[in-house]
Design a protein that fits this description.
Aminopeptidase; 5-stranded mixed β-sheet
């Protein structure tokens, strides 16, 4: 099993490369180094990475709004999948949220990412059909 540890801003470049090389992941301006550093500072000890043989092989970002948790960018390199790494990362996030008194967590999956949908449903997460997500983006910042 790889080593799991908290994500730091020093991991940014390796995490970015994971995201850039993983199908189904959308990179936005909000994934910049500065935005990621703000996210990690605002949500300390909630995001995690996995390392094996001296390199990053998986990551998950986790944050909260004080009431609900949110998972983003759960990634495991294809050659390291089906080994329990994703489940271990998610378990760490959920345990850290629980320590903060947060009992419910959400995540978004692109409708076209059927493998991610199957993964989450297989982990006991429920697809919400009772709500729709609406987003607002300032004009001129379409990639926010």
């Amino acid at each position: 099993m790889p080593t799991l540890r908290g994500m730091t801003s020093a991991d940014y470049q390796a995490v970015l490369e994971l995201m850039q090389n993983t199908p189904g992941i959308s990179l936005r301006d909000a994934d910049s180094r500065e935005a990621t550093e703000r996210y990690l500072a605002r949500n300390p000890a909630l995001s995690f990475v996995a390392e094996a043989e001296g390199r990053l092989i998986a990551c998950v970002m986790c944050g909260h709004d004080g009431r609900r948790g949110y998972l983003q960018h759960l990634l495991v390199l294809p050659e390291h999948r089906r080994q329990g790494i994703a489940q271990a990362l998610v378990a760490r996030c959920l345990a850290a949220l629980e320590q903060l008194g947060i009992q419910k967590c959400h995540l978004d999956v692109f409708k076209t990412n059927t493998s991610a949908a199957h993964f989450w449903q297989g982990q006991g997460w429920m697809l919400r059909t009772d709500i729709d997500r609406f987003s607002f983006t300032r004009e001129g910042n379409e990639n926010a």
